[in-house]
Amino acid sequence: MPDVRLVNVTKKFGKIVAVDNVSLHIYDKEYFSLLGPSGCGKTTLLRLIAGLIQPDEGEIYIGDRLVNDVPPEDRDIGFVFQTFALFPHMTAWNNVTYGPRVKGFDVRKAETIGHEVLEMVRLHERLDAFPNELSGGMMQRIAVARALAAGAKLLLLDEPLGQLDAKVRNELRYEIRRMTKDLELTAIHVTHDQSEAMAISDRIAVMKKGKILQVGTPQELYINPQSIFVAHFIGESNFLEGYVSNISGKTTIIELRGGIKVQAVNNKGVKGGEKVLLAIRPEIFTVEKGKKEDKNAILGRIERVTFEGTNVRYEIRLKNQDLIVIVKPSLTGEWFNMGEEVTVSFPTEKAHVFKYPDVGLKEEIAVE
Amino acid sequence: MPKKLREKLDRLSSKPMVKYGVYLTSVVLFFALILLPPILGIIIKWSAMGKVLGDGELVARILNAMKNSFVIALLVSVLDVAAGIPMAWFITRGRSKWINFLDTLADVPFIVPTAVLGYSLLLFWHKPDGISAFFGGSIVSPGWLLVALLHFTFSYPIVVRVIVGALLDYKIEYEQASRTLGAPPLTTARTVTLGIIKPSLIAAFILAFARSISETGATMMVAGIFENGPVFIQNMKNAVSAQPPQVSQAVYEGSTTLASIILVIVSCLIFAVARILGSRLGVPIKKAWPTLERKLSYSSATLLRNITTLLIFFIIVLIPSLFVALPAFEALSTDALSKALAGVEPWTEYWQSLVLSYSLGAVVTLLNVLIGLPMAIIVARKRLGNLSSTLNMLVDIPIIVPSVALGVSLRFFWKETLAFIPDIWLLIFAHLAITYPYLVRSMSAAIERIGIELEEASRTLGAKPLGVFRTIIFPLTKYSMFSGAIMVFTRSVSETGATLAVTQLKTAPVVLVGWVKGKVVATSLEIGLGCGFLILISFIILLALRLVVRGKGRY
Ligand SMILES: Nc1ncnc2c1ncn2[C@@H]1O[C@H](COP(=O)(O)OP(=O)(O)O)[C@@H](O)[C@H]1O
Ligand SMILES: [Mg+2]
Description:
The structure holds two protein chains of two kinds. Chain A is α+β, with helices and mostly antiparallel strands.
């Protein structure tokens, strides 16, 4: 029953706090992703779970067992390294059967397991090749097969697709998920690629500077981000500066720059008179030609049009000089031209109001 | 260098004629000065072997000496690698602040000239004031065991250095991968780490083996009546130059040639086997002993291993190496010191020899850098196509020829071809040949570690080949070049066997061997003092060089 629980876990490297007081519960048989910009402590967190490094504070449980003092070889895990770490002096086959052999299984059993996992990663050719003779995609399959062969119920993957080119990456990510589901494994997948995390995860933890900002399903994170960083990092958001002019019931009235008043309902605890940021996804705007009167309608002019295939992307200068981005499907609906005057509007219930960050917007959403 | 001249040289270096001219010159010099003379020297005397082959007793004696050489070399190099692995592990993985200090200490036996090292071990293990004092008698008398101890000691620093380098370059992730797959630390070390650094283990083995096969001066001191290859050659040489000669010139030439040929050919075979077996024969990963290895992996077993490692280092390597310095301290309170400084007999000869040794070391180092550097580039960057790989193998040959045999055949060769050649040149050639592989090896390894992209980037930015060397390769390999030069220098200063064989000129180790062997009357205080000076001066020179290099700033 490998669920994983972290309780107030902290890990420092000298002055750097790589993992900062993290508590997290990853459920049994779940496909869980740790998502965040590079350097935010994802790998460190994964290594703590694997026992490759020890926490300075806090407890780590795998199943019901407190594993703080358990060495990695006794934690019953599989680990796929970012650089694969295939043993360069062993053939693909010997890499895959390494786990069963060092655990003392007899040769017959080790070989049976080897064939099973290779079946699973759909790799049968070139088993006598050494790692440096294999392509990136093959090395990745061998690395996954090797981790599975150890028979663990908890699979840890550190950017397992990071070294592959885009096409192979997109194929393999679904395969890994399928395998873990077939084998009923718990998987923890580290990535900095939000689209990857969104595509394959049951739940995602978004990390920043050693802290976990939000945990939730991909939909929850996208529809209801709890912080400016998450709203920015997952998908895309327009941020408009303003002040709370009035709160009535669930509705917050915000005065944007240039005296424009708009309404939103998702108020993250801001108070009257406070400086705020209004976060609006690019695809929820409605765009109409010319000047229109409507709720949450703002007049603007198209400054740039970019055709992206599936979508068209408009950069629009609002009449208060704020710049926003709007994305519309290219084959359904109307097109607009550069320089055209338009009215944009957005639904009250899909915009989010955040307190303006003390460090400024730029710093708040910086990924470094 | 003036700017004008530098620019001119840079421009010249981009002309293919000039570039290949430099490379070809270094290849020609390698063949003409380093590789061919010792080999031809042996071949010239080929016919002399006929006289010896008929003499059953002499052949038996030679074969016995050969057997002794190989048994000792094999034993010692295996033990050295076995003892060097945990020490290198301790140095690279330990967390204590003492590790750096220990790391430096491990180099000490390398600074002590081998002949002095031999004497030091003799004092420690055999003479009444050494460790024997605690046991009321000599623990180890001169003979095979003392020879083995000696060879173990002088190869230890090289072996540790090579393995430390390998462990530092090695990616720790392989080890972590193995642990997550369920292997305890010991299994991981055996199946993964040692498997991956195997080429370095083999290299360390070969270096230790070659050194053991070829070392002469120090071995002479502790051999007693025990005879291995180099000692046999030296004994024959003594016999032929005795008054009156105890063997004929022909017997001397024949038996020396035979012994050298056997040593070289069998060594080459052993190295080939080591390389082939090493790469074929995987580590025994097929088998694992989970319970046993698990037990041996954790705290008490690890502690025991570390303690044993340190005990071996201090008791067998470090203390015996420095033991010779003790009488030197004692000598400070007697008039031995003032006599030595005043240059009374036997000190006149000693001081002259010291000057000769250090100037020789300097000249040899300089020449080696000049002719070895282009070769290192050829080998590292494969500048001459297929020829490069062949050269790469040939470069190692001089270190496997026993130094005394190398001296003898060099003398044969040069005296046959250029009878009037001055002895000092013979000496320089001999030392050049012996030390050349060390410089080329360390330099080419360092150059290989610099990615070729850096060089290419520099070229695309407009640097000429010589400019690339000056601005990229040199700054980045400065420390390797420095350590290569140090190896060359210390090796030259401590070299005894070839020196004795090639000339009558007396370098410091030759003089000290004479004192110890009783050819010149000297007290133990004087011997201790003589050794002490040599160690101290070598140490100061190396320290000064290190400071100068470091003073130029780090990168
Ligand atoms: N072994 C280490 N020693 C020192 N600092 C480290 C070490 N490992 C990671 N760090 C630091 O900890 C922070 C988090 O690193 P990491 O967990 O690798 O981030 P991520 O995987 O999210 O890119 C970084 O600032 C990194 O420099
Ligand atoms: Mg990482």
